[in-house]
Amino acid sequence: MLVNGKWHKDFHPVQSDDGEGGFVREASKLRNWVTPDGSPGPTGTGGFKAEAGRYHLYVALICPWASRTLMARKLKGLEEVISISILDPRLTPRVWRFGGTPEAMPNTDADPLYGAEYLYELYLKANPAYTGQITVPVLWDRRSETMVNNESSEIIRMLNSGFGDLANNGIDLYPDELRHEIDEINDRLYERFNNGVYRAGFATTQNAYEVAVHDVVDSLDFLEQRLEEQDYLVGNRLTEADIRAFVTLIRFDLAYHGLFKINLRQVREYPNLRAYVRRIHGLPGIDETVDVEHIKTGYYSIEALNPAGIVPLGPETIW
Questions:
Q1: What is the pLDDT of residues 122-153, one digit of tens each?
Q2: 87, 186, 229, 306 - which has most CB atoms within 10 Å?
Q3: Residue 317 has pLDDT above 70, yes or no
Q4: What is the domain-level CATH number for residue 56?
Q5: Three-class SS of residue 24?
């Protein structure tokens, strides 16, 4: 991580804990918003007007938080409006490294804007005194040469409504009439499921691990039951709640079940969840946001959890 613009500590999955061995995730710090007219959003400062070709999205296909922004970009038809760079999925001592080199994994990119080797260089470009973890996704403004936002939940809402007529407004991932229920589902799933898998994998005490695992399994049961008589989580239509659930579900059997030791259940054992993952994966363009090799190789590159660096063989799909 960086402290006052200086490299302070090499990557370790446990950023901080709650004093009882429970994993605590650092809150994202760069929270500006793109809006149709450039006015300020809910947080941060204004000046980030929706314009084609102005913004660039840095992502890693291992990362569920980054992948949900890729899903929103696809669903909203913003591929020609917002360019992307895919980082190497293997975690290094300085975290995210750009691809496009002979030693990089396929389907990765060099930095097209500044020729950076590591993503942290862009954090320093945005703020030479930055203190914090280096995370994806990053939404970057080419014009002002700074970072707009590195919080995925906010980026997907920007992609949904912040780009106005540049986006496909035939789909609304956060419709007014469903917002309360979407927020309830998001709140129900975030700490127990989306972050719960990390709370289990990065727990440093037995009790913290067991609490997290049971939270995750309870969430799987909750989702299975909710999908008993409907295809999607809220209003029986695709919303951001489905995006947020899908990115964790698609990684579960590939990585979390084994590496994170959440081995009481697998998604493949739940008929409704298995059909749900297939349904969303089958939406136009969504398969392009899922790379099984990036997911498996990236997670199993975490040395603190897998010192031998062994990537397990199959299964490679649950759909």
A1: 999 999 999 999 999 999 999 999 999 999 99
A2: 87
A3: no
A4: 3.40.30.10
A5: strand
DSSP 8-class letter at 20: S
DSSP-based three-state secondary structure for 183: helix
Quote the pTM value: 0.96
Residue 190 known to be catalytic: no
Query: What is the reported pLDDT for 25?
Result: 77
Catalytic (active site) residue 120: no
> 112: cis peptide before it, omega within 30°?
no
* 203 and 273 part of one domain: yes
Q: Which residue range(s) make up the domain with 266? A: 176-284
Choose the catalytic residue: 55, 118, 198, 300: 198
Is residue 86 within a helix (H) or strand (E), and if so which, with residue range?
strand 82-86
Cβ-Cβ contacts under 8 Å for 210 (sequence gap 6 or more): none
Distance CA(56)–CA(113), nearest Å, equals 9
Name the phi and psi angles at 254, rounded to 5. -75, -35
Quick check: is 126 in a domain?
yes
Instruction: Please choose, from the candidates 136, 127, 142, the residue with its C-alpha nearest in 3D space to the C-alpha of residue 51.
Output: 142
Exposed, middle or buried, 117 (CB in 10 Å: 0-12/13-18/19+)?
A: middle
Catalytic residue (one of 63, 118, 130, 256): 63
- Residues 181-197 have a mean pLDDT of 98
Better-predicted residue by pLDDT, 21 or 260: 260
pLDDT at 319 (0 to 100) = 57
Judge if 43 and 186 occupy the same domain: no
Q: Are residues 75 and 222 in the same domain?
A: no
Distance from C-alpha of 272 to C-alpha of 100, rounded to nearest angstrom: 39
pLDDT score, position 251: 97
